[in-house]
Every structure is written in C-alpha cells, then in structure tokens.
Design brief:
Two copies of one chain form a homodimer. By secondary structure, the first copy, chain A, is an alpha+beta fold. Chain A has helices spanning 40-49, 63-73, 88-102, 122-136, 179-187, 201-212, 217-222, 232-235, 258-263, 321-325, and strands at 2-7, 28-31, 37-39, 56-62, 78-82, 110-115, 118-120, 142-147, 158-161, 167-174, 191-200, 243-248, 252-254, 269-270, 273-275, 280-286, 292-295, 298-305, 308-313, 333-336, 339-347, 350-357, 366-367, 372-379, 381-386, 389-394, 398-401, 407-411, 415-422, 432-433. Chain A is built from ten helices and 30 strands.
C-alpha cells in the first residue's frame, strides 16, 4: 500500500509549543511505553511501520518541516518537498508525480492520501487498507474515508452520502456549517471529511495534466510557485461524479487546538508541573527547565516553552490565533536534521544559543557575513572544520569563528555547545552554505 | 530621627519572584515616574530620603541580603548585619549596639524601629516623627504604632489599648486570633501590631544587658549564633509596663502574599504580558524574556521568573508555602552588590550563566577548586585580573579560567558576559575569596 502522508500547517493554534516552523505534528505529547514522549508524526509513522501488511510511505511536506521530520523519524522516509507553500491540490499533484517519476511506482498502483495529524488507533490503518481494496474494485475513481460524527461540529467539512451503508456514493460536499446545519447533517447521516482518500495514480496524473497542462515531477517542481492555491477537494473531489465514501466509526481525533489536544493526553502534566488539590481539569505542558505551580484553577491549560507561556481557559484557547499572529518574534527553538537549537539569551548585539548535535551528525558547512561566533563545547566530542581545516574538539574546548569563516562541527558522540553570536546585525538570514572542503 | 529599618524574611510566599535569597522587599513592582520599577526597599528608602526632616537610616539585615541591598540602594546606607539568622530581639539588640558603638550615636537619642516591607505613603513617615516626639515626652519607655484595622484579620497580632484615644497605654498583646476573636478585638478598638516602635537607645542597651549579660556590639556579634531565637515583642514589649500605643489610620498595607501584593500594583501587567477581553481581575508579573498570554481567566495571578512559573487563583496563592519549600532547586537569579547573575542553562557537568556588572563595579577576586570557566564578553569593557595579571577586555573577548586561577572582572562601562562553568562538581560553595593582587 502506498501511503502519502500530508505534513503541512503552521503552529499558531498550539502556541507556544508550536511556532512558525514547528507545526503541531512535531510536539512530543504522547507517552511511549519507555516513558519518553513522541509526536503525532512519530506516532503515526510508528503505527504505519508496525502494521502486518506492507506500506510504502512518502511524506508530502514543505521545506520548513524537512529538518524536523529528519530529526524525528530519521532520513529513511521519502520526502516530496514543496519548494513553497500552495494548497493541497498542488501538493498532492507534486507528491503523486514524485511517486511515479522519482520512486518509479507504476501508474497502475493506488495511493492512499492521509493527513499526518489525526490521533488514531490500529483500526484506522485497517480501514485505510479496506479503503484501498475498495478503490481497487474500480467502482469509483475516488474513494474517501468519512468519519461518523461524534457530535454536530462546526469545525469540519461534511460529505452527504447517498445511503447510510458502509460504502456509498457521495452526493455532495459541504463546507463547515453552523451548529444548526451541522445537526441536520448528522440526522441525514452525513460524515466528516477526514481528508483521507484513495485513487489510482494514473487517475491523479490524468487530472493534473488536465488542470495544469503538465504532470511530470520536474516541470511541476520548477513551476510550483505559479501553481494555483486550490485544495484537492475543490479542484478534484467536488467535481468528480464517480466518487464513493466509506464510513469509519473508530478512534479519530483532530488535535488541532489545546482543548482537543489535552483530551488526548495520557497525563495531565508533561514536564515539571505541580498542582494543588483544588485544581480541577487543569493541564500543564511545560518544556522549560523550571517548575510550573498551579493553584486553585479549573478548566485551564498551562503551556510553556522558550517561545512563551500560555495560560488559558480550555474553551477560550480556540481563539488564540490573532494573539499569536501579533507576536512578532524570532523563533527560539528549532529541531534540525542534525539536532536542535534553543535561544537562551538575547541582547541587542549578541545572541546566545544552546546547540545540540545528535551522534554522527553535523550542521551545514556555512559562514556568516556580519557576525562572529564563540563555541564552548559543554559535552561530547567531535571535530570542527574551519576554512577547510579539521580539528578535534571535546568538552571545554572553545572555538572562535570570525565573520567570513566557513565552519561546521561534526559530532562523534552527542555534542552540546553554547554558541555566543556577536555582531551589529544578527539575523538568521545571514548564513551562506558552502560545499564541505578539505576533510 | 534615627531609623532602624528591619530587612529580613525569606521569599516563599512570593515565589517565583522571590527566592531563597531574594525576599519580597527586593521585587521591583512599583512604577516610578520615569516608567521604571522600584522595589519595596527602594520605595521606602526613597520615601525616607525625601522627607523634609532629617533621618539617619540604618538597615538591620542578614548576610544573604547584603548584596541585594547594595545593588538596589548603593553603598551609602549603613548596614547592621546579623552573622546568622536569629529572631527580632537579637537583631534589634545588635542593630542598637551598632548605632551606639559603631556609629557613635548617643545613648540618649531615640531610635524608631520599623519593618522594611509595609506599603505606605507620606503620612506614615509623619506618624513616625510624631511617634518619636511622643517617646521624647518620656510618658512611656516604649511607644508603639498601632494600625487601625481595616477588617478583622487573622494575619496580624493585636494590641489592646486602655482607651480609644490617639495615644493610650497598652493593656495587652494578642497573638494572631481566629476570625471571631478578631471581630471582638476590632469592636474593642484593638489595633494591629505594626512592628513599629520607638525607644531611647539607653533603654534598649539596658534591656539587652539584663537579658543577655552583655550589650556591646563586638561581643554581641561574636556570640550571635548563641543568642536565643526570640522576638522583640516576646522578650521586651510584652513584659514592659510602661508602654504606649499611637493609632495610625493612614495607608498601611502588608504586601506579604500575591493577593495583597497585586492589590497595590498600579498596573495589571508588568513585563511582557497580554490578555484577552474575557480576562477579569488577572495579574501578570513576568520577568522572563518571553511573552505570557492569558485567556479566559478570572481572579488569577500569573508570575514568572527564572525560578519558575506560578499560575494561581488569587485567594489560593496564600497557601503556596509548602509547595515552594518542596522545590529543592539551586537559585537561578541573584542581585549582587556589583550587578546580577542569571542561570540560563543547566547540564550535568556544565552551568551557563549571564553575568551583568554595573559600571565601575567588580566581583570578588576569587577562585574555584573544581571547575573551569569561559567568559565571553557580550557588551561593555573593563579589565580582568587573573592570578595578579591585569588585562583589558571588551565585547567579543573570551577569557579562560582554569580551576585554581584567581580571577575577577572590573567593569569600566556596564559589562555583560556569558560564563560557561565546566566541571564534574559545580557548586556555589566551590568559591574561595582572595585579596586582590598585582593591580
């Protein structure tokens, strides 16, 4: 089974644990059996890998998420990377062409497209398989998964099926309704649009050629910025006559807001958090290296990271987006393919960050035009390459990097270092990548 | 007028803005006319300095507070420093002896003892003056200030006066009562014990000699650890027959808990804090370099510092002490006589701190046995002294300090530096002071 996992989105609704480059699927909130935590991405990837049938996974994503994906699930997953942000039709077109042109998958095969972020269990993946099998029967050109609504929700799009059978033709798609309309939909047996669907690759390719005039990976990639911002539903599904929906009544939770996310948490406290006996229905998610103490609260979510601190009534947290959009602030934490960094001090002409490199990894070989840097290794060992010269480093070693110096550090063990950036114009944009030399 | 300001206490009730060494009187929460904030200590000191009559101020305090006092009000204030923590009788005995033996004030003069931490206005200081004048009349050996209760409080000790006149003999002292008893006291015209009182120095000296067997500063200092832990009220006031109280009905607020402290705040937000329209009666005090967003809350105090984050119902916050006592954690922020430091990263074998030196100041000349340090100056200039060798430093310079190196930095301008401590045993106790050499 070919799975196309869609990993996109920004992180405004789960601030401060999400930020401009860390979307909700990267937040580690689900407890593993070993006591550590995994993200939605890690969870769904692990779930897919543990199925007793074969799946080929391709992740359709954008450039900003590549580092985090590499960090969280390694470099084995195939990524179809959007060069810039469009909507789901271009993204799926590009990913489909990637499957065919880059991965060499036959156009006769089927692809199951599904978003990376619903919280699901094993039965969901069984359903994906049945969805693919249904598509293979050839009764319809497009087969969708519809979620049986748990309540009349204003947050989802709906599909109106012809019949209440497990498999049915789709009569119509409906945009997010108001509460009253949502109730009517539910009574009619309508289903939430899960964003999950299956098609034969040749069908997609044909549709893409029709709509865009070309359908090969390279041309799509080169012209990506010019493609229309349109969703797959609008461009394809709503215009398709031969379309079926399969009902799914198992676990399916959209964890898009703090309110829904906390419902899926196994514990009420993640990180260093304490609360008194008078707290009721309080959740603490604390990524900071300091304690949070909650007293006398009810229905409150407290979430803290280096980006900031949210204290919100659970219901009210759904309205946070405009406040977060208003915070113009450099990113304070990022996962990179090689590890992560965290800003620990900000001054006008200096910035201090803590850099963590995973064993065997190294940052890009790069230089800065307007700033010097001082690295103090606080744990681990590896070697630096500076202007082509390689030198071993270990805990306690200090490295000076002048503006213009091409540099990297390659970690043997895990390496942590404190980087002090110094200069009049410190900016994440002041970075030039180079080919590694002299090693 | 001789003022003895008592500055003691620990910071458990105003965590996380207070900590083991930062008591509530050092938290900067009162807005100055220039938009900056001042602490209770700075406020009362400024108020005393702006009176139109002369005051000689001595601060009775303990060792842990000396740096913060020097930092906040400079080095001009006279400090009578307890070598260890006793109760108020030994503290006042030592401070009284300091006035006479060290400052050379005549035993015939009067001293007004008052705690540093009530929130007061000009009329309070006028009342102190009247209190001293009343004492000078010689009608009683001890004259106290009694606060007219605003409500029946269980938090204060009470004094029962003979009459409801402005000046009256005191019939009895009462411990903190329950609510019912407090109501009865109020009806009887009882007054809160403010901890403010006046005596002739010769009276104090005589009492100290009687109770302790000696009364000179040097002997008290040397034997301080052996002195009984007893309050001035218990040791002296409650046993004195010749005692008067003067009523005070002006502004007097004890800001000992978040609930009372927030009542005295001029603004609901100090630091980077935002709240939505649905927040009611919410206070944000944020010392961190990141935004706090509050949504849909009512009657909540949010307070954040490098020590931690408190989110509490305002009433409930009064019960935080046991939770804070349970947090065994190194201090993350401290004001020093020369500036301040803040812990910005903690690892097993490293600690990274940001050090801020005020212009013209320098840290003690010292060495560490078990750790190396790396200093990166991020702003300002001055010079280092390492093993007797002086060297200028400026922004961008890096200094290595090996275990055993005697070192200091002397700031010409304000200096900020990032200090990375490295070693297997990093402890605040690993510090040996030396005489500055070779400068």
């Amino acid at each position: 089974m070919n799975i196309l996992l869609l990993s996109g989105g920004s992180g405004k609704r789960l601030w401060p644990l999400s930020n401009g480059i860390r979307s909700k699927q990267f937040i580690k909130i689900f407890k593993r059996s070993d006591g550590s935590y995994e993200s939605m991405l890690q969870r769904v990837y692990r779930q897919l890998r543990s199925l007793d049938f074969e799946v080929d996974i391709t992740i359709a994503t954008n450039r900003a998420q590549v580092s985090a994906i590499r960090n969280q699930i390694g470099d084995k997953a195939d990524l179809a990377i959007e060069p810039c942000s469009r909507d789901t039709f271009p993204a799926i077109a590009l990913a489909g062409a990637y499957l065919v042109d880059v991965k060499g998958i036959s156009e006769e095969e089927f692809a199951v497209v599904c978003p990376v972020d619903p919280y699901v269990e094993r039965d969901y993946f069984e359903a994906l398989k049945m969805l693919a099998e249904q598509a293979e029967k050839g009764e319809a050109r497009l087969v969708l998964m519809g979620i049986e609504p748990a309540y009349p929700s204003e947050k989802y799009g709906y599909m109106i099926p012809e019949k209440k059978d497990r498999i049915s033709k789709v009569l119509a798609f409906k945009e997010k309704p108001d509460l009253e309309t949502a109730k009517q939909y539910m009574e009619q047996g309508a289903l939430w649009n899960s964003g999950v669907f299956v098609f034969r690759l040749s069908y997609l390719i044909e549709q893409v050629r029709k709509k865009l005039g070309y359908c090969d990976y390279q041309t799509l990639l080169e012209n990506y910025a010019k493609l229309p911002k349109i969703s797959f539903d609008c461009a394809i599904a709503e215009k398709e006559d031969s379309i079926q929906v399969m009902r799914f009544g198992g676990t399916w939770k959209d964890l898009g807001t703090w309110n829904t996310l906390t419902e899926a948490m196994d514990e009420v406290v993640i990180g260093d958090g304490r609360m008194d006996d008078t707290c009721e229905n309080v959740y603490i998610l604390n990524e900071l290296d300091m304690p949070v103490l909650a007293m006398g609260l009810r229905d409150v979510i407290i979430s803290a990271s280096v980006e900031g601190i949210l204290v919100s009534d659970r219901e009210q947290s759904s309205y946070m987006k405009p406040f977060v959009e208003d915070m113009h602030r450099q990113i304070r934490f990022a996962e990179k393919s090689w590890g992560s960094f965290k800003v620990i001090d900000v001054e006008e002409e200096s910035l201090t960050i803590k850099v963590t490199l995973n064993p065997g990894h190294s940052m890009n070989y790069h230089s800065h035009e307007f700033r010097d840097e001082v690295w103090t290794v606080i744990s681990g060992r590896g070697y630096t390459v500076i202007n082509g010269k390689r030198k071993p480093v270990k805990t306690g070693d200090v490295t000076f990097l002048r503006a213009g110096d091409r540099h990297t550090i390659i970690a043997d063990t895990g390496v942590e270092l404190i980087e002090v950036q110094l200069g009049r114009e410190i900016s994440v944009r002041d970075k030039k990548k180079h080919e590694l030399e002299g090693v």
